[in-house]
Amino acid sequence: MAMLELTNLCKSFGDLRAVDDLSLTIETGEVFGLLGPNGAGKTTTIHMATGLLVPDSGTVVLNMQGSPADPEVRANIGVAPQALSLYEELTGQENLDFFGSLQGLSGKGLAQRVEASLEFVSLADRRKDLVKSYSGGMKRRLNIAVALIHEPRIVLLDEPTVGVDPQSRNAIFDNILELKAHGVTVVYTTHYMEEAEKLCDRVAIMDNGKILALDSLPGLINAHGGQSVVILEGPDGEKRIETDHPLDEIVKRKDQSDIASFRVERPDLERVFLNLTGRQLRD
Amino acid sequence: MNKIWILAKKDLRLLIRDKTGAFFTFGFPIMYALFFGMIFKNMGGGGPTTMEIIVVDQDQTQASQAFVHKLNESDSTRIVEKNLEEAVELVQKGKKPAYVLIREGYGEAAQNIFGGNPPAFEIGVDPSKRVQSMILEGVLMQHAADNFSRAFSDKDTMSKQIARSRERVTQSEDLNATERVIFSTFFAALDSFMQNAPSGNTTDGEMGGGFGSMTPAVITTKEITQQKTDTGNTFNITFPQSLVWGLMGCAATFGISLVVERVRGTLVRLRMSPISYAQILAGKGLACFICLIAVNGIMLVFGMLVFDLSPNNYPLLVLAILCSSVCFVGIMMLLSVLGKTEASAGGIGWAVLIVMAMLGGGMIPYMFLPDWIKTIASVSPVKWTVIAMEGAIFRGFTLGDMMLPCGVLLGIGVVCFALGARVFRWMES
Ligand SMILES: Nc1ncnc2c1ncn2[C@@H]1O[C@H](COP(=O)(O)OP(=O)(O)O)[C@@H](O)[C@H]1O
Ligand SMILES: [Mg+2]
């Protein structure tokens, strides 16, 4: 069942086509990765999917209910915007209280959800501190907690790990896997291919406002990753052999004495992106 | 409505939480209001420029008509003739700074220079425009002296009169330093004018001493306000204009806070929440409105406790407060679209507010402004707020009298809010 359906979305800023005829269907319960370099149009896509931006053309249908421009439809979504959107002069708990109330929660229900959300992102002990005293990683985690306060069916996380320490980053990964275990649909944008590889059921590779490829990780690698590379190290330096059967290549050379060591490079999303665009994902 | 209240509550909490913001909204306006309110109020007139005054000629003799004619020719005054009742009302409502009443018998007195009574005038002035009244006194004296000196060419008498006035200014206890400077400057200018004035007969100068006790005219000044008002309390008079600064501070603070929501990204989250755009803006408006009422209330209590402020009509004061608050909510909305960053919004916002204050007569005396600016000024909320407040505090307005200023305030509020909200949305997309 489709949780979010984007059809032929276009959005321009002046002469710049930020999103160019983009179509996507996100299924209920999957973790969907939107992978692309900075400026690819990921945030613009998220903003259209949440009703914040009106597309120049194309449609967005959320949870089979209609456009997120309708506040009631929008209540199904939780969003952690790329630009932190928290009140720095309020405490973590007050932020959750406020945004929870806006989602229609109140009284005991609200208190329980605030509690659970704080626990979820491990901020319970800092709940009474002003957000401005939080570290970058803590703010990112609270930003996610606010997105989850009303137990949305679909969560859109726009680059949730930018500027985050490794510890918080791992905590966020765990959070996403836990959400997935609870059947929550997650849309995850990133320009880090390792994150997409690690977390996502399906990945769309985006560049210049267009989706270049969309598949599961093995599917993408099979189609666009090219061959594995066996790298042999000897006195003359490195020798690279491209092959579909790396093990055979190694076994063939098992008696050669000039090989000090070897390793195998499997094609990854970085290679997929390189093959699709001719550029590195990160320059 | 519930959501709007949730939004407003958040803003008020943020305001209190943010010590600087709270200070700039409450503390600073009170200080600012007290300080500038008094200074600016007292500058409500300050130099010899054209002043519109009403003449009530009850004498209707040739002499009185000639006097009116001369007054009209003078650069410093422009004359409208009215009957006494109308004149009192116009001054009472603050529409004209003063009237001059020429009582019956003026014509006769004007001829009796040696014996009998000198010609008498009565000036009715708006107590909030004391400087104008002083100027008017000076002008009348000058004209009367003109007549007088036709016989004696006695500039010295005039000079003495001026010196006396100056002395009065220096000794006067209810004048503050600023006022003193203004008056002294004015009288010094008048004095030097007199000294340099062409005169047919200067040799009579030494005779001046002999006429020192003589006055070219007797001028009685009457303050025109509602009778039971204690006009001696200058805070009654400075209060409305002071309050305007508090209201402007509040509008600026919330206008900027809307820009801050946009710049810091929280507006994005609000817009992704299941609330409409209208609710977001209404929440901000409600918070601003509550804050404006609070500023009004605090200033009022402060004025009553510290300065014995004594408004003479509380229901109308409440009406004035409500209407001006609505108006400034609209202005807040308009201010929020003037800048893209916090700093630019703050800077541009205050610049606009100060211009509005100037146009409304809050800084540069209204009467100094060219006519075309006066026309523009009629849309300055500052002007109408002051009129409504003054009306309720000491002008003795009736509900009917309040309709105009309150209507204009509500109108400005609604138009500004609608316009601001529209541009705000447009800037988002
Ligand atoms: N409000 C805007 N006005 C003008 N250009 C914009 C705006 N938002 C995004 N862009 C441009 O659109 C392109 C896509 O931006 P964005 O969606 O933020 O990319 P990503 O999130 O993938 O980094 C970029 O070139 C960006 O500069
Ligand atoms: Mg982005």
Describe the 3D structure.
The complex is a heterodimer of chains A (283) and B (429). By secondary structure, chain A is of the alpha/beta class. Helices cover 34% and strands 29% of the residues of chain A. Chain A is built from 10 helices and 12 strands. The longest helix of chain A is centred in the middle third of the chain and has 16 residues, at 166-181. Chain B has 17 helices and 5 strands. Chain B starts with a helix and ends with a helix. Chain B folds into 2 domains: 2-42 and 231-428, no CATH class; 51-126 and 128-223, abc type-2 transporter like domain (abc type-2 transporter like fold). Chain B is elongated, with a radius of gyration of 26 Å. Mean pLDDT of chain B is 73; it is low at 43-49, 196-214 and 226-232. In chain B, strands 2-1-3-4-5 form a 5-stranded mixed β-sheet, sandwiched between helices. Chain B has 429 residues and is α/β, with parallel strands linked by helices. Bound molecules: adenosine-5'-diphosphate (ADP) and magnesium ion. Adenosine-5'-diphosphate binds next to strand 2 and helix 1 of chain A.
Topology:
The complex is a heterodimer of chains A (283) and B (429).
Chain A: E1 2-13, E2 16-27, E3 31-35, H1 42-49, E4 57-62, H2 71-74, E5 77-80, H3 92-102, H4 107-120, H5 136-148, E6 154-158, H6 166-181, E7 185-190, H7 193-199, E8 202-207, E9 210-216, H8 217-224, E10 228-234, E11 237-243, H9 246-252, E12 261-265, H10 269-277
Parallel strand pairs in A: 3-7, 3-8, 5-6, 6-7
Antiparallel strand pairs in A: 1-2, 1-4, 8-9, 10-11, 10-12
Helix pairs in contact in A: 3-4, 5-6, 8-10
Chain B: H1 2-17, H2 19-42, E1 51-57, H3 62-73, E2 77-81, H4 84-92, E3 98-102, H5 106-111, E4 120-125, H6 130-152, H7 155-171, H8 177-196, H9 208-211, E5 218-223, H10 234-264, H11 266-272, H12 277-307, H13 314-335, H14 342-359, H15 371-377, H16 381-393, H17 399-428
Parallel strand pairs in B: 1-2, 1-3, 4-5
Antiparallel strand pairs in B: 3-4
Helix pairs in contact in B: 1-12, 2-10, 2-12, 6-7, 6-8, 7-8, 10-12, 10-13, 10-14, 10-16, 12-13, 13-16, 13-17, 16-17
The complex binds adenosine-5'-diphosphate and magnesium ion (MG).
Residues 42-43, 82, 158-159 of chain A line the site of magnesium ion (MG).
